[in-house]
Amino acid sequence: MELNQIRSGKSYTMMGSRVEKGLIPRLCDKLFEFIAQRSHDELFCKVEVSYMEIYNEKVHDLLDPKGKDSTQVVECKS
């Protein structure tokens, strides 16, 4: 999870650039490399990911091709 001010480099840290990969692409590379090294006919791996943004009290799924559908953030008293 990355928390910081607007325009402080969060997206760059997480995704990187064309020249230098960020945290998420590096993690994915290592994860799939790990799976491939241990792969055999009896092994089944399922990888699921979420990439969410909370902005102005709304949650956005950044992997949703539909765009800016959002869910409202609510506080729980407990």
From TrEMBL:
Q: Does the keyword ATP-binding apply?
A: yes
Q: Which InterPro entries match?
A: Kinesin_motor_dom, Kinesin_motor_dom_sf, P-loop_NTPase
What SUPFAM superfamilies does the database record attribute to this sequence?
A: P-loop containing nucleoside triphosphate hydrolases
Entry keyword DNA-binding:
no
Its GO biological process terms? microtubule-based movement
Q: Which UniProt keywords apply?
A: ATP-binding, Nucleotide-binding
Q: What GO molecular function annotations does the UniProt record carry, in alphabetical order?
A: ATP binding; microtubule binding; microtubule motor activity
Q: Which domain of life is it from?
A: Eukaryota
Residue ranges of every copy of the Kinesin motor domain listed in the record: 1-78
Q: Mention any Pfam family matching this sequence.
A: Kinesin
Q: Which family does it belong to?
A: Belongs to the TRAFAC class myosin-kinesin ATPase superfamily. Kinesin family.
Q: What is this protein called?
A: Kinesin motor domain-containing protein
Origin species: Pomacea canaliculata
Q: What is the lineage of its organism?
A: Eukaryota, Metazoa, Spiralia, Lophotrochozoa, Mollusca
